[in-house]
Every structure is written in structure tokens, then in C-alpha cells.
Design goal:
Blueprint: H1 2-9, H2 13-21, H3 28-40, H4 47-53, E1 59-65, H5 76-91, E2 95-101, H6 110-114, E3 120-124, H7 130-141, E4 146-149, E5 160-163, H8 165-177, E6 184-188, H9 194-209, E7 219-221, H10 226-231, H11 233-241, E8 247-250, H12 253-265, E9 275-280, E10 293-296, H13 299-315, E11 324-327, E12 330-332
Parallel strand pairs: 1-2, 1-3, 3-4, 4-5, 5-11, 6-7, 6-8, 8-9, 9-10
Antiparallel strand pairs: 10-12
Helix pairs in contact: 1-2, 1-3, 3-4, 5-13, 8-9, 11-12
Length: about 350
């Protein structure tokens, strides 16, 4: 059969062997003739051979931050997003290649394409720092298909998929304000993440709408870990006891739960002495005491959308405009955001 394929493609049997075994170097045009001839004769080449012939790996890369002492797969955000990406990639005939990036290592994403390890990539945990911007600019200049999840860069047009983080914190603040709370503390994440900036803007927008003065000292910074929420409990407790704060919004559930634990140890009861709202609506938010009011963020759907949109662009013959997708969020009310304490107007 290989002889017939070689005759139809106008090449040697050795060339056919190299193409169908995925070994050696063959020009793209020649490799395609071999694959087409094999199909025409009913000789089905292996998936590896087809990928080699078309200069494709069949892998969709997912770039993740490598965080010491953190099991990413046990965190709600990463597990949900990765599940969405994985299911969608599988349905489209792609395998996932997980690539972990240390904080201080070079971000040479373009090299993954040059070495044909991946055909496209989705980047999680990107930060607005010069090295990240340079790496993404190189990807864009080289027309390598990529998508950012949960991160935007002001002044740059990159493919992005995110939830409507600004609307989420606006919903959280309005929920508290409409119950009479006026002294709302906001526990945010680092400014290197665009979702931190978006959530802060949503919080500020709600205050403006209700004619409540924004106070910069009511904004505290954590790093999205439970530990950072726990560490801020001392400061929050001081603000509560002095009468400067009657409610708190945390930018994710992990910080909210850490804060709840720390406040409990200091004798302050969430749901009685202070109201608390988280963000993510992770599984554990239903298990806290009291259950945590939270913004439901569709992370699984975010992963599905990112993979689907990116794979669509990878099949287009003409370059398309960058996409920016924001999925809706929803406030889930539970006992943590209602208190028996008298609120002030």
C-alpha cells in the first residue's frame, strides 16, 4: 500500500514512511500530498502522522502559576476553570498540556509554539507586570493563538474571557447598602490582577449610587489566600470595635473564610456583629458557620468559553479581531450578610 501512496503522491516510499511515522524532516507541501494520497487510497495514517504533516501537536497548552505550598487542583477557581477547558478541548479533539510557570522564570511562551509543543494556549494567573506584557506582545506579533482567563491588560487588545467581576462586587455592595450598612470594608487582591481593579470599581460604583463616601482606609489588601484573609482579621476587628466598619466584602471566598476564622478567634461573630460577603460561591461557602453569602462566578463556563473561542480562532483561515467575553455573575444570599446589630444611616 505504501508503494501505491508513493506513486500517487509522486514521492519515494522512504518519504511516505517518514511522513506516516512522524519521523524526519519533510516539506509541508510534500507531507500534505502524502497524507492526501493515503486518504484517497483508504490508507488511514496515524493521528501522529497527520499532526506531523500539518505541523500540529494536537495539544492545547494551559499555562498555570506554580505556587509554593498551594495545591492548585484543590482550589475551587483552578479546578473549575481547568475542568471547563479540558471537557471542551476533548470534545474538539485536543489534548491538554499543563505547563507550570514559576514567578521568577522567563515567560517565553512563544517558544512553546516554535518547538511545536502546542497549537494554542490559555493562560491562567497572568499578572500585569512588564515581563508578562512583553511575552504576550511576542505571542501576538507572531500570530500565535492564545487566550487570557480572568485577566485584562489596559491598552492591549488580547483575547480574554472573564466573569463580570465589576458587576459582582457592585451587587455585593448594593446588597449590604440596601440593608442599611454604610461602613463597608473591602478586602481586595493585588493590583497586578485586573479582576482586583474591576472589583474595586464595582464596590466604588455602588457607594456612589447610594451617595456613600468612599474611604480609602476601608480598602485592605490580601493575596487571595485564606491565610491573607486570616491575617487581616486583627485590622478588621479594630475597625469594627471602633464603629468604623459594620460590613465586609472579600474579593474571594478563601479570604472571606480566613477572615471569618480570624474574627471568630477575636470574639467577633460574623452574621451577628458584622456582615460578610465573599466572591466565587465555592462549595465550602455553604459549609461555613454561618453559611457565606457570595457572588456566584461561573468558572467552569469561563473555562469552556475560553477553550471554545480559542479553538474557533485556530480553525479560521483569516485573522480575526481579538475577543473579549464577560460572563454574568449572581449574588447568592446566605446568613453571613445579615446581622442583629443596629445599623446606622
Amino acid at each position: 500500500m505504501r508503494k501505491k501512496v508513493a506513486e500517487l503522491a509522486g514521492v519515494s516510499e522512504a518519504t511516505v514512511s517518514r511522513v506516516l511515522n512522524g519521523a524526519g524532516t519533510v516539506k509541508d507541501e510534500t507531507a500534505k500530498r502524502v497524507v492526501d494520497a493515503a486518504k484517497q487510497l483508504g490508507y488511514v495514517p496515524s493521528a501522529l502522522a497527520q499532526r506531523f504533516a500539518l505541523r500540529r501537536s494536537g495539544n492545547l497548552g494551559v499555562i498555570l502559576p506554580l505556587l509554593p505550598k498551594v495545591n492548585l487542583f484543590s482550589t475551587y477557581y483552578f479546578s473549575e476553570v481547568l475542568s471547563g477547558i479540558g471537557v471542551t478541548a476533548k470534545q474538539r479533539g485536543y489534548d491538554l498540556l499543563l505547563l507550570f510557570r514559576e514567578a521568577d522564570e522567563p515567560r517565553d511562551y512563544a517558544n512553546l509554539f516554535r518547538t511545536q509543543k502546542i497549537d494554542g494556549c490559555i493562560i491562567l494567573g497572568a499578572q500585569d507586570v512588564p515581563t508578562e506584557r512583553e511575552a504576550l506582545a511576542e505571542l501576538k506579533e507572531g500570530e500565535h493563538p492564545f487566550c487570557l482567563v480572568n485577566q485584562r491588560f489596559e491598552g492591549e487588545a488580547f483575547n480574554t474571557v472573564d466573569a463580570d467581576q465589576r458587576m459582582g462586587s457592585r451587587h455585593a455592595a448594593r446588597h449590604l447598602l440596601q440593608q442599611g450598612f454604610r461602613k463597608i470594608c473591602f478586602l481586595n487582591g493585588p493590583a497586578e490582577y485586573s479582576n482586583s481593579l474591576d472589583r474595586l470599581k464595582g464596590y466604588q460604583q455602588a457607594l456612589i449610587e447610594e451617595q456613600v463616601t468612599f474611604q480609602a482606609e476601608h480598602v485592605l489588601i490580601g493575596n487571595y489566600s485564606r491565610k491573607s484573609g486570616y491575617q487581616q482579621a486583627v485590622k478588621v476587628a479594630e475597625l469594627i470595635r471602633s464603629g468604623d466598619v459594620d460590613a465586609v466584602i472579600a474579593a474571594n471566598d478563601r479570604m472571606a473564610i480566613g477572615l471569618m476564622q480570624g474574627l471568630k478567634e477575636l470574639g467577633i461573630r460574623v452574621g451577628e456583629d458584622v456582615a460578610l460577603v465573599g466572591c466565587d460561591d465555592s462549595d465550602v461557602s455553604r459549609m461555613t458557620e454561618p453559611p457565606l453569602t457570595s457572588i456566584r462566578v461561573p468558572f467552569y463556563e469561563v473555562g469552556c468559553e475560553a477553550a471554545s473561542r480559542l479553538l474557533d480562532t485556530m480553525t479560521e483561515t483569516e485573522p480575526s479581531s481579538p475577543f473579549e467575553v464577560k460572563l454574568p455573575v449572581k449574588l447568592i444570599e446566605r446568613a453571613s450578610s445579615k446581622t442583629t446589630r443596629t445599623t446606622t444611616t
